[in-house]
Design goal:
Layout lengths: L17 H5 L1 H20 L2 H4 L9 H19 L2 H19 L6 H27 L1
Helix pairs in contact: 2-4, 4-5, 5-6
């Protein structure tokens, strides 16, 4: 015996789900940080910010880059934890590049495995807490 076809199958789901509406402030903050990052990159010479707050750290650039990645990825992925992990990984790669440290395939894979392992651990822990 076959199952009856659903009468709701022809109804299309809305393109924008509620979760995107709830995380809209993240998207707006991400766009604002993107504007700040664009302003920083186009108007200020790198030599002027290279030694803020510590020598050769490019603090303002890394801070704005991290915030931009965090807010935009948090909005796009609808998960602040995943946005934070990807923002930390990409900021770490940018920091290593700015320090003139060669970031090859092995280093990228190490960073990727570390942050992926952290995400898997967090997912397992979250599922265990839901079961309790």
């Amino acid at each position: 015996m076959q199952k009856a076809r659903s009468r709701l199958a022809h109804i299309q789901k809305p393109f924008w789900s509620r979760s995107y509406v709830r995380t809209a402030p993240f998207g707006l903050l991400g766009l604002m940080c993107s504007g700040g990052l664009y302003f920083l990159l186009t108007t200020i010479r790198p030599v002027e910010i290279a030694d803020l707050p510590l020598p050769n750290t490019y603090g303002p650039l890394l801070g704005l880059y991290f915030l931009t990645c965090f807010f935009l990825l948090g909005y796009l992925l609808k998960s602040t934890r995943r946005g934070m992990l990807l923002a930390m990984a990409s900021t770490l790669i940018l920091f290593l590049h700015l320090q003139s440290i060669f970031v090859g395939t092995v280093e990228l894979l190490t960073i990727l495995v570390f942050f992926t392992g952290f995400e898997v651990f967090a997912l397992i822990r979250q599922k265990q807490q839901k079961m309790i």
